[in-house]
Batch of 2 targets.
Target 1
Amino acid sequence: MNGAELKQKLMAKAKEIGIDKIGFTTADPFIELRERLKESQDKGYASGFEEPDIEKRVRPEHSLPEAKSIIAIALAYPSKLKNPPRSEPGAYRGIFCRASWGEDYHHVLREKLTLLAAYLQELVPKARTQVMVDTGALSDRAVAERAGIGWSGKNTSIITEEFGSWVYLGEMITDVYLPPDTPATDGCGDCTICIDACPTGAIVQAGQLNAQACIAYLTQTKGFLAEAYRTKLGNRLYGCDTCQTVCPKNRKIHFDHQAAFQPDPEKVKPLLKPLLHMSNREFKEKYGQMSGSWRGKKPIQRNAIIALGHFKDQTAIPDLIELLMNDPRPVIRGTAAWALGRIGGQAAEEALRQAKGKEQAEEVLREIDKALDMAHAG
Ligand code: B12
Ligand code: SF4
Ligand code: SF4
C-alpha cells in the first residue's frame, strides 16, 4: 500500500474512533520554533512546564529514530455549561477553565492515538510509532499548525475553522512515510481583541506569550501569588479562558459530542467555601479525574481564598480565620491573611492582630502586616 492509500485509511479510521480532525506533516525539524523557544527561554517567558531541551522539541527523530511523518489530531471540547449554577452572596463560586472540564483529556487523546497506532501497525507491521499529548517533547501547536489542523492565533492558541480554538491537540510520530498536508495560514488578520483583553498583558506581541504573567500559569503555581496578580485572578481556580472567550473565531462555537468532556457543573463551577477544608482524599475523589487537579489541592485552595477575597465575602470570614490560625501551610495562612485584609471588618482585623502575636513564618507575618494596613484603610 502506498503512502496516499495509507493516509486515506488512517483518516477513515480516525473518524471511526471519534477523532474530530486529523492532519499530516513531515518529521522535518521545526526550524522557526527553535528561535521562538530560545527567545522564550532567554527572555524568561517560559513556564517551566515544557521540555527544557530545545533540540528534543524541534527534532522529532529525538523521540523516534528514523521518524518520517507526524499525524496530528484534534478533539473538540465544549465551551458552554448547561444550566450553570450561579454565584450568590454567601455562596460564591470559582471556575475551572474549559480545558479541565470532564475527563482528563490526556487519557482520552492518548487512547485514541493508541488505537490509531495499532491500526497503522496492522497495515504496516514494521511501523514504529510514538504517541504524545501535552507532556511529550514536541510542541503540539507547532505540529498542529504545520499539519494543517489550524492556524496559530495571536493568543498563541491553535484555531480550527470548524471548532475554533476549543480543541485539544496530540500527535503520533511514525517512521512510515505519509504525504503531508498544507500548513494552516493565518486567520486573525488585523484583529487584536485577545491582546487587548488579556487581564495581565501576558501576550507581549502577536503570537508570543510571557507565560510567567499568564493567569493560566499563575493558577498552577504553588507558592505565594505575587500581589499584583491577586486582584487579576478573579474567581479562577485553574486556568484562564479570557483570550479565547473574546475571540471572534469562537463566537457561537460549542461542540459537546465528545461524551468524555461533558462537564459536571458542580465540579467545574464549585462553591468556594467547601474547597477550603477539603481533605486530600476528598479532593482526589472529587477532582482527581480532571486535568486541572494535576498540581494537587494546594493551588486550588490558594486560588479559592483569593476568589473569596475578590468577592469580599463576609460570610467566609470564620473559615478564613480558621485557616489563618491553624493551617500548617504558610502559603494558605498568608493568603488567608490577604483575603481577610481585603474583606475587612472588626472580626477580620482582630483575628489578624491575634495571628500576628503567634505567627512564626516571616513571609506570613509580612502578609499579616499588609493585610492589617488594607483592613484599616478599607
Ligand atoms: C507550557 C504550556 C502552557 C503554559 C505556556 C503556554 C504558552 N502559550 O506557551 C501555560 C501554563 C501558560 C499554558 C496555558 C494554556 N494552555 Co498550555 N501547554 C503548554 C505546553 C505543555 C507547552 C507549550 C510551549 O511549549 N510553549 C512555549 C511556546 C514558545 O511554544 P508553543 O506555544 O507551542 O509555540 C507555538 C505558538 O505559541 C507560536 N509562537 C511561539 N512563540 C512565538 C513568537 C512569535 C513572534 C509568533 C508570531 C508566534 C510564536 O508558535 C508555535 C506554533 O504555533 C503545551 C503542550 C505541548 N507539549 O506543546 C500545552 C498546550 C499549548 N496548552 C493548551 C491549552 C488548552 C492551554 C490553555 C488554553 C488552558 C487554559 N484554559 O488555561 C492555556 C492557554 C494560554 C495561552 N494563551 O497560551 C493546549 C493548546 C490547544 C490549542 N488549541 O492551541 C496544548 C497544546 C495542550 C494540548 N495538548 O492540547 N500552557
Ligand atoms: S490565558 Fe488569560 S492571562 Fe493568559 S494570555 Fe490568555 S487572557 Fe491572558
Ligand atoms: S481574538 Fe482576534 S487576534 Fe486574537 S486569536 Fe482571535 S482572531 Fe486572532
Target 2
Amino acid sequence: MLNTRLNCAIIDDDPQDARLVARYIDKASTGMWRADCFHTLDEGKDALASAEFDVALVDLHLGPDSGIQLVKEFDRKRGGTPIIMMSGAADVDIEDTALTLGAYDFLSKDNLDARTLRRAVNHVYSAHAIEEALRRSAELAQTSNEAKSSFMACMSHDLRTPLNAIIGFSDALLMAPEGTIREEVVREYSGYINQSGKHLLEIINTILDLSKIEQQEFELQKEWVDISELIELQLAVLRPVAENRNVTLNAMFRHNGELLLVDARAMRQMLTNLLSNAIKFNQSGKNVMVSTSLNNSGLEVRVSDEGCGMTGPELKLAMMPFGQVTNDPLLARQGTGLGLTIVQSLMEQHGGELTIDSRKGVGTSARMLFPSSCVSDDAIKVQA
Ligand SMILES: Nc1ncnc2c1ncn2[C@@H]1O[C@H](COP(=O)(O)OP(=O)(O)O)[C@@H](O)[C@H]1O
Ligand SMILES: [Mg+2]
C-alpha cells in the first residue's frame, strides 16, 4: 500500500494535533500519502461527502461536537470513507462505541507515531477495499437476479401467447361435432396453428442462441473479414424481403475491401437483425442505408432507416429482452423481441457496443462500433 497514493483527511479541532498527524502521515509514507486538515464537524462532513478521501482520521472531540457523529453519518455499510477515530485519552467504553458504530480503528493520540499510523492506515485501507468489493459483488448478484426474473416473466408471456392460440384453435377443431365444420374453417384454423407453432419454434431457437451467447459458449472465431463484401452479401440475401415491402437497400462504404477482425457468423447475424428491423419498421417507398466510417474509437457500421422511429421510452423498451414497441400484431409476430438483445450481446463480446438513435416518425439509426483493435492498420493509414 505504501506505493499507492492515498488521500487522507485529518479532522481534528486542535490545529497543532492535526499538523502533527499530517507530519506522521508524510513520514510514514515517505511522501506518498497526502493529508488535508479540517477543524470542525461541518468541515469534516463536507470533506467526507466529497468522497475524495481514501481514509479519514477523526478526533473524538471536535469542539462542542463529537467525531462519532461522522462515523454515524458516513455509514460503512453504504461504502463511505473508512474512519479511524483518535482520542487524547484512552477510554475503553468510547473505543467500543466508536468501533460498534462502524469506525475501522481507534488510536490514542498519546502514543501515536509514524509507524503506528502507517500500520493502521494500511490495514484500514485494505479492509475497506475488501468490504467494497464484497458489497459490489452482492449488488451485482442482486441486479442479475432481478434481470433473470424479469427475463423469465417476459419469456413465459411470450411462450404462452402462441401456445394458447395452438390449444384454442385445435380445441375448436376437436370439439366441433362431426360434419359441422366447413373445410375452409379447418384450413384457416390449421393455418393459425401452423403459424403459432413456427413462431414458438423461432422463439425457442432464439432463446437458445441468446443463452449460448450469454454463457460465452458461443466462442467467437475472429478472422479478418472484408466488411464491405460481407455487407453486400447480406444485402443480397435480404433484398427480396425489402422489395416485397417496396423498401430500397443502399450501401456506402468508407472504402471497399476494408478489413475488420470479427466473427463472420456473428457479424452476419447482427447485420440480419438490424437490417430486418430497418426493413420491417420502414414505410413503402423509403430507404435503408448501411454505411461504414472510421472515428477515433474505431470502425462504425451504421444501419439507418426512414421508418416509424421510436420515442426515448419506446427505445428503452425495445432494447430490453422481449421488448416490442410496435402495436401492429402482424409485425410483432414476425419477431421475438430478442433481435436487439442479441446484437448488444455479440457487440459486447467483440469489445464494442451498439448504440441506437431514433426519432418518432423520422427514422432509426443503429450503430455498431468496433474498437480500434478490430480495425486493420491499413484502414488507420488510409484515414491518416
Ligand atoms: N429500426 C426500427 N424502427 C422502429 N422500431 C424498431 C426498429 N428496430 C427495432 N424496433 C422496435 O424494437 C422492437 C425490438 O426489436 P428486436 O429486438 O429486433 O425484436 P423483434 O423481434 O420484434 O424485431 C421491435 O419489435 C420494434 O418495436
Ligand atoms: Mg428484430
